[in-house]
């Protein structure tokens, strides 16, 4: 289905996922309307310069969402994560925001809602608040009359470039053990998959899709980073003392150990369906190159994984 003449409303367009979705939709010919708190802000003005319509709106204000969703074909739904440092969002806030977006989209006659969740979502609680919020929103979306698609992205490749992962010291620290594989996805590819979903609603409506672009062990990550950086990069799991001190981080690591956060997407099938998916080495040579360069120059300020 062509996007010409159709509008998709994108939430979170000034952030990573929403920004990638807005760019991919524009590339496919869709009209994009971004809901932003401040249309005069720098990021909102950058969206406008790229051909995106920006409208003022707030997740806590259903009336502003109704105005933003009016006449739209689709809505891409993402909320501030309750576990994100500095977001000021509680678990209940995130669930309320996500369910309100879905309710308003249904009432406005939106044809297709795409909600982005997490690879760890599912019917059984994880015990981690900012992951279980997404399972609750998923369940709400499925119980509505609107055609919906849920995507569950694997861990972002971009997270590996965070200052707290230690690349500035030549040592990557992350959740899995050195020999354990974990799946990852480039944020750019989330946007491209979402654009493909909106372009073929008959194929994707009603589906829940786990998405990833690569699977690597800690050792494999170190090898690829070493090649890309041109200097040795080692790998080790986050220190056991840290995982014991930080209850949430410890639970997240346990979910990686058990496989729920490590991901189980069928990578071969996904690459057949979405040939543009980036493997980690290609991402490092492309969209991730500037992030890696910055990470190698960074000074650690502590773990920044949630």
Q: What features would you describe in this structure?
A:
The protein is an alpha/beta fold and 306 residues long. The protein has a domain at 7-155 and 186-211: Rossmann fold (3-Layer(aba) Sandwich). It has 13 helices and twelve strands.
List the helices and strands and how they pair.
Layout: E1 7-11, H1 16-27, E2 31-36, H2 42-49, E3 53-56, H3 62-69, E4 74-77, H4 91-107, E5 112-116, H5 129-142, E6 147-153, E7 155-156, E8 171-174, E9 181-185, H6 187-199, H7 201-204, E10 208-211, E11 214-217, H8 218-229, E12 234-237, H9 240-245, H10 247-258, H11 267-273, H12 280-285, H13 289-297
Helix pairs in contact: 1-6, 3-4, 4-5
List keywords for this structure.
3-stranded mixed sheet, 13 helices, Rossmann fold, 7-stranded parallel sheet, alpha/beta, globular, 306 residues
Radius of gyration: 19 Å
CATH architecture of the domain at 7-155 and 186-211: 3-Layer(aba) Sandwich
- The helix tally amounts to 13
Give the N-to-C terminal Cα separation.
37 Å
Largest sheet: 7 strands, parallel
CATH superfamily of the domain at 7-155 and 186-211: NAD(P)-binding Rossmann-like Domain
Total DSSP E strands? 12
Which structural class do you get from the secondary structure elements? Answer: alpha/beta
Widest β-sheet, arrangement of strands:
3-2-1-4-5-6-10
Helicity, in percent? 40-55%
CATH class of the domain at 7-155 and 186-211: Alpha Beta
State the shape.
globular
Strand content: 15-25%
- Could you report the average pLDDT, rounded to the nearest whole number? 94
Low-confidence stretches: none
The helix/strand series, from N terminus to C terminus, equals: EHEHEHEHEHEEEEHHEEHEHHHHH
């Amino acid at each position: 289905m062509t996007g010409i003449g159709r509008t998709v409303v994108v939430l979170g367009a000034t952030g990573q996922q929403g920004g990638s979705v807005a760019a991919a939709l524009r590339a496919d010919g869709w009209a994009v309307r971004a809901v932003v708190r401040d249309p005069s802000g720098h990021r909102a003005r950058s969206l406008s310069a790229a051909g995106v319509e920006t409208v003022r709106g707030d997740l806590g204000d259903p009336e502003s969402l109704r105005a933003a969703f009016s006449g739209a074909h689709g809505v891409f739904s993402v909320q501030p994560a309750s576990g994100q440092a500095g977001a000021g969002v509680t678990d209940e806030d995130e669930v309320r925001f996500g369910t309100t977006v879905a309710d308003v989209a249904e009432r406005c006659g939106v044809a297709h809602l795409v909600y982005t969740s997490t690879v760890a979502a599912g019917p059984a609680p994880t015990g981690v608040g900012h992951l279980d919020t997404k399972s609750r929103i998923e369940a709400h979306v499925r119980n509505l009359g609107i055609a919906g698609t849920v995507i569950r992205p694997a861990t972002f490749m971009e997270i590996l470039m965070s200052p707290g992962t230690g690349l500035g010291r030549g040592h990557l620290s992350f959740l899995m053990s050195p020999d354990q594989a974990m799946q990852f996805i480039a944020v750019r590819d989330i946007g491209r998959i979402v654009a493909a979903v909106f372009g073929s609603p008959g194929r994707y409506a009603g589906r829940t899709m786990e998405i990833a672009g690569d699977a690597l062990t800690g050792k494999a990550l170190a090898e690829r980073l070493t090649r890309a950086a041109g200097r040795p990069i080692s790998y080790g799991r986050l220190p056991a003392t840290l995982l014991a001190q930080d209850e949430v981080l410890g639970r997240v690591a346990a979910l990686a150990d058990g496989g729920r956060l490590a991901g189980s997407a069928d990578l071969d099938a996904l690459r057949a369906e979405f040939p543009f998916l980036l493997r980690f080495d290609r991402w490092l040579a492309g969209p991730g190159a500037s992030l890696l360069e910055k990470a190698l120059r960074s000074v650690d300020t502590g773990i920044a994984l949630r």
